[in-house]
Write a structure and sequence with these properties.
The complex is a heterodimer. Helices cover 68% and strands 2% of the residues of chain A. Chain A is mainly α. In chain A, helix 2 crosses helix 3, helix 3 packs antiparallel against helix 4 and helix 7 packs antiparallel against helix 8. By secondary structure, chain B is an alpha/beta fold. In chain B, 32% of the residues lie in helices and 23% in strands. In chain B, the strands form 3 sheets. Chain B has a 6-stranded mixed beta sheet, with helices on both faces. In chain B, strands 9-8-7-12-10-11 form a 6-stranded mixed beta sheet.
Chain lengths: 205, 330
């Protein structure tokens, strides 16, 4: 079972990972976007860590809902609403339970990912964060590590794609050949999740 | 890269403190990042709120004042503001007559303003939105994010702002804002890349002998790179690109806009070529604005925006305006 502390530690791990990789995300974003993805997410997740410490939400669902709301309030750009919606809708789908099973979580994450697709009007193959999130949500039903691998592979698979959504779409064919920064940060999030699970006894056994 | 900043993290707040120091006629909420006219809310008047990433100065805060915007919310550099800012701005300028959000068509701006509109309506505010999407360099289809919003933002804000000043109701102000957007098209070129404070180096390499055609205002490369052209050749290219899409049957407003690092000497010379190109194609120019209005940090280059006007739009364009960056008539 996954408890509230697990989700809080996931968010902390995600914040640390975003902090560590911020420059790389910004570098990827400078190729096909506007060179701010790293600094924006860094600001947002730092705020998430802060609010989770201060407000100490009591359930897994409340952790993610609060984290999502905080991202919307601090990140801006497209990443704020999209990542905010991902976490909020995943959190809402988890409901009020004190603990959730991995299967419940996988189902909730799939709902969160679907909400992102709806909000951004994007689908698989558009060279967005969905290309990492969709396979990750599917793999999560069976394995945390599998989800991380699927997300990473999904991010790498965006390299040959032509962007159809977001700012990179304005480059048309010139967006081909660059890894999508959104898919890359999404993979970081899922990798942080897998690392949190590995550090937790009895998870993903 | 040398920049006149303290640290990258505070550039927006520092600029807002500077705006406050220069413009006592504005209220500047540095913490929540809202710039509003000091006399807002004006009784009976529709509020006009715009916002978007910083780095496009004087857009948006430079257009706050009588005859134009009621408030602006600047985001981080090249990053949309967050819904909380927009809701605060709307609440600060709403007199009960409702608020129009002027949104540039970028995924982030659109998503955040949509969320803000929902939140504001929850608080009992009446909100309408106009999405500006004038950039002909982007082919618009359901498979892209759609055309970017660039120079036409100024036309929309000025003309809708004048109408709101006359006391027109929200639906009418919104309709005219959409009319202006529908009648406007832009095309931009870059002679150099952008350096954002967060990154500290140019966002792309542009060799000395080349230029980027079809750029937006966020330092992203354009659709195509070519060997450097003369001012006249660039004017022909931009005007052709616009007129392929907008076929004006009457006079136009022309905005020859600098992207931030191109001096007025060059912009005026370019404006002469734009006028020549339009005259050769039988398009009369009713009014012209030349300067740095919708910029992209330190990008060298320019954009052209044309808006076909009728008598009413021209009258609203000529109406008095008093903002930091645009003022005439009073």
């Amino acid at each position: 079972m996954l408890d509230t502390d697990f989700f809080r530690r996931w968010m902390t791990a995600a914040a640390a990972s975003v902090e560590r990789e911020a420059d790389q995300l910004t570098e990827l974003d400078s190729a096909i976007g506007d060179a701010d993805h790293g600094s924006n997410l860094q600001r947002g997740f730092a705020a998430v860590t802060e609010v989770l410490e201060k407000d100490a939400p009591a359930t897994p669902g409340a952790v993610l809902t609060l984290a999502g709301r905080q991202l919307i309030s601090t990140v801006g750009g497209a990443s704020g609403p999209l990542y905010g919606t991902l976490l909020r809708r995943t959190g809402k789908a988890l409901g009020d339970d004190d603990e959730v099973t991995q299967a419940q979580f996988a189902q909730a994450l799939a709902a969160g990912v679907a909400a992102v697709g709806q909000l951004g009007g994007a689908q698989a193959g558009d060279k967005t964060m969905l290309d990492a999130l969709l396979p990750a949500a599917e793999a999560l039903a069976t394995s945390f590590d599998g989800a991380a691998e699927a997300a990473r592979a999904g991010a790498v698979a965006t390299v040959p794609m032509q962007a159809r959504k977001g700012r990179a779409s304005y480059l048309g064919e010139r967006s081909i050949g660059h890894q999508d920064p959104g898919a890359t940060s999404a993979a970081l999030l899922v990798e942080a999740l897998a690392a949190t699970a590995t550090a937790t006894d009895g998870v993903d056994a | 890269m040398k920049m006149l900043i303290n640290v990258p993290e505070t550039v927006v707040a520092d600029a807002l403190r500077g705006i406050a120091a220069a413009h006592p006629e504005l209220t500047v909420d540095v913490e929540n990042r809202v710039v509003a006219r000091r006399d807002a809310p004006v009784a009976g008047k529709v509020g006009l709120v715009s916002g978007g990433g910083s780095g496009h100065e004087p857009l948006h805060a430079g257009f706050v004042g009588p005859g134009m915007l009621s408030a602006a919310c600047p985001g981080e550099v090249f990053t949309s503001p967050v819904p909380d800012q927009m809701v605060r701005a709307a609440a600060a300028v709403d007199s009960g007559a409702g608020v129009l959000f002027v949104v540039k068509n970028y995924t982030g701006d659109v998503l955040n303003f949509e969320m803000a509109a929902e939140l504001a309506e929850d608080e009992g505010l009446q909100v309408a939105q106009v999405v500006v999407d004038d950039d002909v360099a982007v082919s618009d289809s359901t498979f892209t994010a759609g055309r970017r919003g660039t120079g036409a933002t100024l036309f929309v804000e000025k003309i809708a702002g004048a109408l709101a000043d006359e006391g027109a109701p929200l639906d009418r102000v919104a309709a005219v804002a959409r009319q202006v957007n529908g009648a406007s098209r832009s095309f931009g070129v870059a002679l150099g890349a952008v350096t954002t404070p967060a990154k500290g180096s140019p966002t792309f390499d542009l060799p000395a002998g080349e230029l980027e055609l079809g750029i937006g205002i966020h330092g992203e490369p354009g659709r195509e790179r070519r060997p450097m052209m003369t001012s006249g050749e660039i004017a022909d290219f931009a005007v052709n690109a616009i007129l392929e899409d907008l076929r004006p049957t009457g006079p136009v407003l022309a905005l020859v806009n600098g992207m931030g690092a191109t001096p007025l000497l060059e912009l005026y010379g370019f404006n002469a070529e734009v006028h020549r190109a339009l005259s050769e194609r039988g398009v009369p120019v009713a009014r012209t604005l030349v300067g740095n209005y919708v910029t992209s940090l330190d990008m060298a280059g320019c954009s052209v925006t044309l808006c076909q006007v009728d008598e009413e739009l021209l009258r609203l364009w000529d109406a008095p305006v008093r903002t930091a960056a645009l003022r005439w008539g009073r």
